[in-house]
């Protein structure tokens, strides 16, 4: 037997995904309050699937205020670019962090994404020959692009330490630092 403790209040929900893991988040972006579950596989025997399996989406949607994209593939990024700006416009408190690389076909993305409307900062590129670019707008939106040479430090310049990955491709290195970067920008800290 256990004593039922009241659930803590929901503070702020962040949905974050790496690579193809961004896909389910993109699928949730157009969700609206009052939306019903529409899955016929649950209602195959004449049951009302929403009645049996559905829940009110309003509490979740009201607390979901951040999306972190960690190198979504191009086929997912197309839909992210389509739906994320609309999601951001619903509430001025919503935030997004988008990190893209050459590996996912994102060269030039930072100059053309519709998310540019949420960043006011200038496009910054390092002067050391490494290919990277970033744009920020206060704490609301970050757009960061990493070229292959930046992630693998393959330049004639002095190597940058630490080289903290041994993966066969730079894509696998992305979550090793982008999750921390997004958390730092958000102001998250240890409890």
Structural account:
By secondary structure, this protein is α/β, with parallel strands linked by helices. It has seven helices and five strands; from the N terminus they run βαααβαβαββαα. It has a five-stranded mixed sheet with strand order 1-2-3-5-4. The longest helix has 16 residues, at 74-89. The radius of gyration is 20 Å and the shape is globular. The mean pLDDT is 79.
Task: Report how far apart the termini are.
Answer: 29 Å
Instruction: State the total count of DSSP E strands.
Output: 5
Strand order of the largest sheet: 1-2-3-5-4
Shape: globular
Number of helices: 7
Strand content is 15-25%
Low-confidence stretches: none
The string of secondary-structure elements, in order, is EHHHEHEHEEHH
Name the structural class. alpha/beta
Quaternary state of the chains = single chain
Gyration radius, rounded: 20 Å
Largest sheet: 5 strands, mixed
Characteristics:
alpha/beta; 29% helix; 191 residues; 5 strands; globular; 5-stranded mixed sheet; 17% strand
Write the layout of secondary structure elements.
Layout: E1 13-18, H1 23-28, H2 49-53, H3 58-63, E2 64-70, H4 74-89, E3 95-101, H5 109-112, E4 132-137, E5 141-146, H6 148-152, H7 174-186
Parallel strand pairs: 1-2, 2-3, 3-5
Antiparallel strand pairs: 4-5
